[in-house]
Amino acid sequence: MSSEGKPKKAKKWLIGCGSIFLAFIVLGVACTALIGESLDTETTTTPSADSGQGNQAQKKTPVAKIGDKVKAGDVSYRVDKVEHKERLKNAIGSKKPGSGEFLVLTITVWNEGKEPITLDSSMTQLIDRNGAEYNYDAEALMYLYEDGETPFLEQINPNGEKQFLIAFDVAPNQEYDFIGKNALIFSDAQVRIKLK
């Protein structure tokens, strides 16, 4: 009797474990199918959603013209004057641009926030019609400011303003826009001013 009971118990145990194992396999396949389906859905919908948001963000950037005062967060900008120069010179010497000409801008910046801001070169940029970005020419500043004191890294107190010159080394006969950014590092607020 005992020999007959052992095979039945072993058979029941094998069927029970096999059923549980089979249930895990079925559950695993079902989960994989569901996860795979949701990943496919996310992959196809995410890029189109992101690109739509990117276009909306681009459309929200204010576009102004020379002489307009426009605000980027707590900072306002106005391009007062644009000059095209083949060479910058002062008592020290002169400098020729590497790309063809210097675009020298006279810009006024206002701090409309509640805290002092530090005028930083990363707050200013040019962009051409193809989307290429241009930073200011740091070496050219010494020809614009004979005393050697540039406006960058100077503070502007709340409700204060500062006018300064900045030079960009650019190709001639191109259209450029000035980009002015907010003073806060984590802010993406900016303005765009057409220079033509």
CATH fold description of the largest domain: Immunoglobulin-like
CATH architecture annotation of the largest domain: Sandwich
Spans with pLDDT under 50 lasting ≥5 residues?
A: 30-59
CATH class of the largest domain: Mainly Beta
Spatially, the strands of the biggest sheet line up as: 1-13-12-8-9
Shape, per Cα inertia axes? elongated
- Distance linking N and C termini: 104 Å
Strand elements, count: 13
Number of helices: 2
Residues in helices, as a percent range: 25-40%
Biased composition (Polar residues): 42-59
Pfam family, one: DUF4352
Protein name: DUF4352 domain-containing protein
Transmembrane segments: 12-35
Describe the structure in your own words.
The chain is α+β, with helices and mostly antiparallel strands and 196 residues long. It has two domains: 1-60; 64-194, Immunoglobulin-like, CATH 2.60.40.1240. It contains two helices and 13 strands; from the N terminus they run H-E-E-E-E-E-E-E-E-E-H-E-E-E-E. Strands 1-13-12-8-9 form a five-stranded mixed β-sheet, with no helix packed on it. Strands 2-3-6-11 form a four-stranded antiparallel β-sheet, with no helix packed on it. It has a two-stranded antiparallel ribbon with strand order 4-5. A hairpin with a 2-residue loop joins strand 2 and strand 3. The chain is elongated and about 105 Å long. The termini are far apart. Mean pLDDT is 78; it is low at 30-59.
